[in-house]
Protein backbone atom coordinates (compact mmCIF):
# COMPACT_ATOMS: atom_id res chain seq x y z
CA UNK A 1 0.00 0.00 0.00
CA UNK A 2 1.20 3.50 -0.82
CA UNK A 3 0.87 5.20 2.55
CA UNK A 4 2.30 8.40 1.07
CA UNK A 5 -0.94 8.84 -0.90
CA UNK A 6 -3.43 8.71 1.97
CA UNK A 7 -4.75 11.50 4.18
CA UNK A 8 -5.17 10.54 7.82
CA UNK A 9 -7.16 12.37 10.47
CA UNK A 10 -5.94 11.74 14.04
CA UNK A 11 -8.46 12.72 16.72
CA UNK A 12 -7.23 12.51 20.32
CA UNK A 13 -7.45 14.92 23.24
CA UNK A 14 -4.02 13.81 24.51
CA UNK A 15 -1.30 15.77 22.72
CA UNK A 16 1.36 13.16 23.57
CA UNK A 17 -0.71 10.31 22.13
CA UNK A 18 -1.31 12.32 18.96
CA UNK A 19 2.44 12.84 18.69
CA UNK A 20 3.08 9.09 19.08
CA UNK A 21 0.49 8.20 16.43
CA UNK A 22 1.71 10.87 14.01
CA UNK A 23 5.34 9.80 14.48
CA UNK A 24 4.47 6.17 13.75
CA UNK A 25 2.39 7.10 10.70
CA UNK A 26 5.19 9.29 9.33
CA UNK A 27 7.72 6.48 9.85
CA UNK A 28 5.58 4.29 7.56
CA UNK A 29 5.39 6.99 4.90
CA UNK A 30 2.12 8.81 5.63
CA UNK A 31 2.71 12.43 4.70
CA UNK A 32 -0.67 14.16 5.05
CA UNK A 33 -1.87 13.97 8.63
CA UNK A 34 -4.45 16.26 10.19
CA UNK A 35 -4.68 16.47 13.99
CA UNK A 36 -7.71 17.34 16.14
CA UNK A 37 -8.22 17.50 19.90
CA UNK A 38 -11.78 16.17 20.04
CA UNK A 39 -14.73 14.94 18.02
CA UNK A 40 -16.08 18.43 17.37
CA UNK A 41 -12.81 19.50 15.74
CA UNK A 42 -12.74 16.15 13.93
CA UNK A 43 -16.13 16.77 12.32
CA UNK A 44 -14.96 20.20 11.12
CA UNK A 45 -11.76 18.67 9.70
CA UNK A 46 -13.84 16.12 7.79
CA UNK A 47 -15.70 19.00 6.11
CA UNK A 48 -12.52 20.91 5.27
CA UNK A 49 -10.22 18.13 4.07
CA UNK A 50 -10.34 15.03 1.94
CA UNK A 51 -9.74 12.33 4.56
CA UNK A 52 -9.06 8.70 3.62
CA UNK A 53 -9.00 7.19 7.13
CA UNK A 54 -9.71 8.39 10.67
CA UNK A 55 -7.86 7.27 13.79
CA UNK A 56 -9.68 8.37 16.93
CA UNK A 57 -9.41 7.88 20.65
CA UNK A 58 -12.45 6.53 22.45
CA UNK A 59 -12.33 8.61 25.64
CA UNK A 60 -12.24 12.34 24.90
CA UNK A 61 -14.00 15.42 26.16
CA UNK A 62 -16.33 17.15 25.31
CA UNK A 63 -17.22 14.75 22.45
CA UNK A 64 -15.91 11.22 22.85
CA UNK A 65 -14.91 8.88 20.03
CA UNK A 66 -18.18 6.94 19.96
CA UNK A 67 -20.29 10.08 19.63
CA UNK A 68 -17.86 11.41 17.01
CA UNK A 69 -18.18 8.25 14.90
CA UNK A 70 -21.97 8.20 15.24
CA UNK A 71 -22.17 11.81 14.03
CA UNK A 72 -19.71 11.04 11.27
CA UNK A 73 -21.77 8.07 10.10
CA UNK A 74 -25.07 9.96 10.24
CA UNK A 75 -23.74 13.06 8.47
CA UNK A 76 -24.99 14.44 5.20
CA UNK A 77 -21.68 13.96 3.39
CA UNK A 78 -21.51 10.47 1.91
CA UNK A 79 -17.70 10.47 2.15
CA UNK A 80 -17.79 10.93 5.93
CA UNK A 81 -20.33 8.13 6.26
CA UNK A 82 -18.00 5.74 4.44
CA UNK A 83 -14.54 6.76 5.66
CA UNK A 84 -12.71 3.92 7.46
CA UNK A 85 -12.34 4.51 11.22
CA UNK A 86 -9.81 3.01 13.63
CA UNK A 87 -10.84 3.39 17.29
CA UNK A 88 -7.95 3.46 19.78
CA UNK A 89 -8.43 2.95 23.51
CA UNK A 90 -6.96 1.53 26.69
CA UNK A 91 -10.54 0.64 27.64
CA UNK A 92 -10.66 -2.51 25.52
CA UNK A 93 -13.44 -4.27 27.37
CA UNK A 94 -15.94 -6.35 25.44
CA UNK A 95 -18.62 -3.74 26.19
CA UNK A 96 -16.55 -0.87 24.74
CA UNK A 97 -15.47 -2.88 21.70
CA UNK A 98 -19.10 -3.82 21.06
CA UNK A 99 -20.15 -0.18 21.43
CA UNK A 100 -17.48 0.84 18.91
CA UNK A 101 -18.57 -1.90 16.51
CA UNK A 102 -22.20 -0.82 16.82
CA UNK A 103 -21.16 2.75 15.97
CA UNK A 104 -19.64 1.33 12.72
CA UNK A 105 -15.97 1.48 13.66
CA UNK A 106 -13.87 -0.54 11.22
CA UNK A 107 -10.98 -1.51 13.52
CA UNK A 108 -10.42 -1.36 17.29
CA UNK A 109 -6.84 -0.97 18.52
CA UNK A 110 -6.10 -1.54 22.21
CA UNK A 111 -3.47 0.53 24.03
CA UNK A 112 -0.64 -0.04 24.48
CA UNK A 113 0.09 -0.87 20.86
CA UNK A 114 3.19 -1.38 18.76
CA UNK A 115 3.91 0.61 15.60
CA UNK A 116 3.31 -2.57 13.61
CA UNK A 117 -0.17 -3.09 15.15
CA UNK A 118 -1.13 0.54 14.48
CA UNK A 119 -0.21 0.25 10.81
CA UNK A 120 -1.93 -3.15 10.55
CA UNK A 121 -5.13 -1.61 11.90
CA UNK A 122 -4.81 1.28 9.42
CA UNK A 123 -4.13 -1.14 6.57
CA UNK A 124 -7.09 -3.42 7.41
CA UNK A 125 -9.47 -0.49 7.89
CA UNK A 126 -8.67 0.75 4.39
CA UNK A 127 -8.61 -2.60 2.59
CA UNK A 128 -11.43 -4.35 4.45
CA UNK A 129 -13.97 -1.72 5.54
CA UNK A 130 -17.01 -2.97 7.42
CA UNK A 131 -20.39 -2.21 5.88
CA UNK A 132 -21.89 0.61 7.90
CA UNK A 133 -25.15 -0.07 9.64
CA UNK A 134 -27.79 2.61 9.31
CA UNK A 135 -30.01 2.79 12.37
CA UNK A 136 -33.61 3.59 11.73
CA UNK A 137 -36.02 4.26 14.55
CA UNK A 138 -39.33 2.51 14.01
CA UNK A 139 -42.38 3.79 15.82
CA UNK A 140 -45.52 1.64 15.76
CA UNK A 141 -48.75 3.29 16.80
Please supply descriptive tags for the structure shown above.
5 strands; 17% strand; 141 residues
Q: Percent range for helical residues?
A: 40-55%
Listing every helix as H and every strand as E from the N terminus to the C terminus, the arrangement reads EHEHEHHEHEH
**Strand line-up of the largest beta sheet:** 2-1-3-4-5
Low-confidence stretches: none
Question: What is the overall pLDDT average?
Answer: 91
Query: End-to-end distance, in Å?
Result: 52 Å
Largest sheet: 5 strands, parallel
Query: What structural class do you assign from the helix and strand content?
Result: alpha/beta
Count of DSSP H/I helices: 6
Shape: globular
Secondary structure: number of strands: 5
The percent range for strand residues is 15-25%
What is the alpha-carbon Rg in Å?
14 Å
Short description:
This protein is α/β, with parallel strands linked by helices and 141 residues long. Helix content is 42%, strand content 17%.
Commentary on this structure:
- Helices cover 42% and strands 17% of the residues.
- It has helices at 15-27, 39-48, 65-73, 78-82, 94-102, 115-127; strands spanning 7-11, 32-36, 53-57, 85-89, 107-110.
- A 5-stranded parallel β-sheet has the order 2-1-3-4-5, with helices on both faces.
- Strand 1 (7-11), helix 1 (15-27) and strand 2 (32-36) form a beta-alpha-beta unit.
- The longest helix is centred in the N-terminal third of the chain and has 13 residues, at 15-27.
- It starts with 6 loop residues before the first strand and ends in a 14-residue tail after the last helix.
Amino acid sequence: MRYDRINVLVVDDNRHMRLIIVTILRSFGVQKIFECRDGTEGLLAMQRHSIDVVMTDLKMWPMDGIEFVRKLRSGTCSRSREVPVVMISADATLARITEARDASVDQFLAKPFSPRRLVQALHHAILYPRPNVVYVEVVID
